[in-house]
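user:
I keep going back and forth on a fold encoding question. Separate attempts, laid side by side, tell us more than any discussion would. Would you put together a sequence-and-structure record for a protein of your own picking? Write it directly below this note and I will take it from there.

assistant:
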Amino acid sequence: MGPLGAGNSGDAGPEPADAPRRHSLERIEKVDAVVVGSGFGGSVAALRLAEAGQSVVLMERGKPYPPGSFARTPSEMGKNFWDPDRGLYGLFDAWTFRGTEGLVSSGLGGGSLIYANVLLRKDEKWFVNESPIPGGGYENWPFTRADLDPYYDAAEAMLQPVPYPYQDTAKTKAMEKTAKNLGLSITRPPIAVTFATEPGAAPRTNQALPLPSYGSIHGPNTVRTTCTLSGECDIGCNAGAKNTLDHNYLSAAASKGADIRTFHDVRGIAPLPRNGGGYELRYVIHEPDRGGGLLTERIIHCRRLLLGAGTFGTNFLLLRNHGSLPALSDALGTRFSGNGDLLTFIMDAKTPPANGSQPGVRTLSGSKGPVITTAVRVPDSSDDDGDGRGYYVEDAGYPAFMNWLIETAQLKTAVKRTAKVAGQLFKDRLFDAGRSNVSADLAAALGDGRLSSSSVPLLGMGRDIPDGVMTLREGRLAIAWTMATSTEYFGRVRQTMSDIAKDLDGNFIDNPLWWAKRVITVHPIGGAPAGRHPGEAVCDSYGEVFGYPGLFVVDGAAMPGPVGANPSLTIAAFAERTCAHIIEAADKARHRGISPSDAVTDQAEAAGAVVDVGRLAPRALAPDATKGKAAQPEQPASAVASAPALAVPGTRGLGLPAKSTPEATSVRFTEQMHGWFSPGVTDPEKGRSLGRDRSRRIMFELTITAEDIDRFAADPKHPATAEGYVLADYFGGRMPVERGWFNLFVADDSDDGRPARRMLYRLWLRDPGGTPFTFTGHKLIHNEAGFDLWPDTTTLYATIARGHVPPPESDAPPDVEPVTARQEGTVGAGILFIRPLDFARQLTTFRAEGPAPAAGLLTFGKLFGGELWQVYGRAPRRVPFPFKPKQ
């Protein structure tokens, strides 16, 4: 195992882990299993497969956080977020979507680094089976509590949760008393925090802990202590008292030989040919010292791939690689849920007045103790005594420095206190009051801390309705979710919280997002739900993806609905069960979960596709792929280094138009087109219609260059090069053009004998998984009834084929029919249009370079106008008024 690096706050720390077996064109690293992510699914998978003797590589995009390395100062906190584009490699990864906000973790240990330690089992009767509803909004669990119970035991044995042991913690006592007053069921849930130096010993704070037999992934000198009751669980435990995954599963996995790699960010997934099986992964290694520049793509092959990148990360990977994994279920992205998370606050709680006095301050001290110490359970309608959808309400503490923020936020009170003390000191000095001791005055200026000492947050979670839909939008993750369908659920949770605040005689304060009909979740769930068949789910009850044997989802994305309770333990148990199934199946030499006959066959490439040398050549990728179109422009691998390299059998005219010489004048312009695309069809009209109905957009921006304008004009095929990108969410977002051909006007035979021309486009693309595609399009220039010059020159009929298909031989007739019209290898089709504003911009992009730029532009204009005259001007016909577009 290479060095993991260290550091504090969001700083990158020392160099990321070495990768000594990086791929080259001659040799690609091969292992039994690659695990993506180090959270409650990935860490479990790494340990269990390594224990079974398999070669395992775990890839975590974030850095390691040994005890003492978490950010605390304002300077450190300002850099403690994840945004590699901005040079940030910190702990918190914040997302915003329609209707919800999300906060997750980036670091070795995944969500365990910032979760609140609670390890509750999913309630037995909450494993419901509801009738399917198109688009989600229902739960259908393909496994039961009994199926998971042995694996709950295994996870608890590693994580060692215990109930909160202290009996004098103010917020804990207040919650327990209030629950009794309201008739609510309350417990101290098991939390993964170490309070004592050994099992059964009395709890004591800040006591050194021995390392386990498998050591620590952070090194032999790692120091952990028992809980200091500082309320810092959600910002990283510097004491090491939290039993985060790096201290147990990951340390044990490393001791069993698992290769744990940090700063490794997986970008692409593609199945290897069926005869060998397995998967090809494409990834980058973050290099913080480089300051956010493009990163070199790397490749690794594995027999099994286990996705544990978290609900956001795993769904983003699957959606982004849909082009390479075309058999993924249509359920991908459905049944998203925030696990019913709701955050509220109790402020200024008071004790009852005694003997006619004013109410006193009820001490809650939210910053004392771990974040969560109690859990109120409200039953579900599936329980014997419930009505509606069940939920939990838990006390939610916070770090001590938040107390200062709470007090100083009361600006009016703070200013009033300070002004009063300053006035008194001024009077004393002015009138020589003879006072030397001003301690009481300074104490008065600071205040009594009444508000912070009498306040505590509340966190609710439960069975909201899982009807969110995850998609890509311009290459970035998007979620369509609203509170509307879960209004009744959230209303019940909020009412219970309000009742608790009322019993404590405190002010009930909503999260400010509530008034915008939004919530914030730290427990995103779903998107790749487990189920019985591909019609309702992405993967089976063991997390194996339908149609892709050996590809597993082992994190919260596989949950078919909200867990209800804190989901961490259920995810870990699910991963334990999956790994036991994999190992058992391997031992019995039989297939894992899905019959081999259910595996998709290798996707056929279009006729004439070539094996280009760029398949394994590394690309230069953006530091942060989640930004989609807004990310740094990526650079494709050069398919060929020079023209002589093209002279190999079967390349069929791969040559591009000759580069301009110093004596030649080149002309270029940039064109942007937008439209709709649909996979699985070969007819562009049908693709446009279906794509528009399903909001499947496609666009491109191309720079067309005629390297030698005189040669371009003289050649009847008018060949030019095309550079730029195609943006289509089905293929993962923005795909740079590896090679592009353009023909301005090519003679075409029309059915009516009138002159016709075609503008031809051919673009070689490659999706994030490395699968090659060819975009082929044409504009049909043909004079028909009505004023059709505008639609003819601005409408592109496009198809996309699998594989890189070169143009026809130089002496062959023009390939005016898109290659994908020949069915085999077809991926989809659609129509793109030039919008009027884009056309106006296009006119401003014409440039000429060389000895005669003005003459070059004139030559291009003559050619363009002359060809249009040949089609539309030679046989003028009466044009009706108003102009009618061509039907």
Q: What stands out?
A: The mean pLDDT is 87.
